[in-house]
Amino acid sequence: MKLSIIASLLISVIFVAADFAERFSVSPQKNNNSKAAFNINKQIHLPQLTPQQINTLTLAYNQYQPDPIVEVEKIVGLTAAEQRLQSGELQEFYLGEWRYRLLAVIFPDGSKQALKVPMALLKASTVKNKKEEVKIEKVYHNSVLANYKVAITDIKQVKLQYNQQNITLLMYQPKKNKNGS
Q: What is the pLDDT of residues 79-119, one digit of tens each?
């Protein structure tokens, strides 16, 4: 029994050694044969399109291309004539290259450190330049904003007057009643 175990172990070791020698041997003859067997040195020739096929595909593809976007300079502000026609209740008031919006109205509360006259804060932003410039301007009751006389009578609006032009700058659009008034 010992002899049969030793014989089977010896045969197993011989097979393992032969397998190892076969797998990991670095023989130049075997490497040359393997290159020839797989045709590694040959170039692969891919199918080529003819110029007519290229034109046909290009025309078919071009019908799905979006139209080119033409950038048009957008003028947001109003012309001088349109600015002179501004009147009534507005949320935005255009004056030159600036657009004014009413941000806040502050009334005096009677204390010594408080305001003596009502004040409004206006957000002024440029409308002509590509880069928007923003500033906050303070205007007081009975002061002047570029020839417009300022009157602050309410916490939600500022009145501007110049010659025959009367503008009420609103902080927000008031709600309309259900009956339309």
A: 778 888 888 888 888 888 888 999 988 887 766 666 678 88
Phi-psi region of 16 (alpha: psi -120 to 50; beta: other; left: phi over 0): alpha
Alpha carbon distance 56, 50 (integer Å): 10
Please tell me the distance from the alpha carbon of residue 103 to that of residue 125, in angstroms, as a whole number.
13
CA distance 124 to 97: 10
Q: Which two tokens stand for residue 103?
A: 């941000």
DSSP state of 98: E
| Global pTM value | 0.53
- Residues 92/101, Cβ–Cβ less than 8 Å: yes
Taking CB atoms within 8 Å and a gap of at least 24, the contacts of 81-89 are: 84/165, 86/165, 86/167, 87/165, 87/166, 87/167, 88/166, 88/167, 88/168, 89/157, 89/168, 89/170
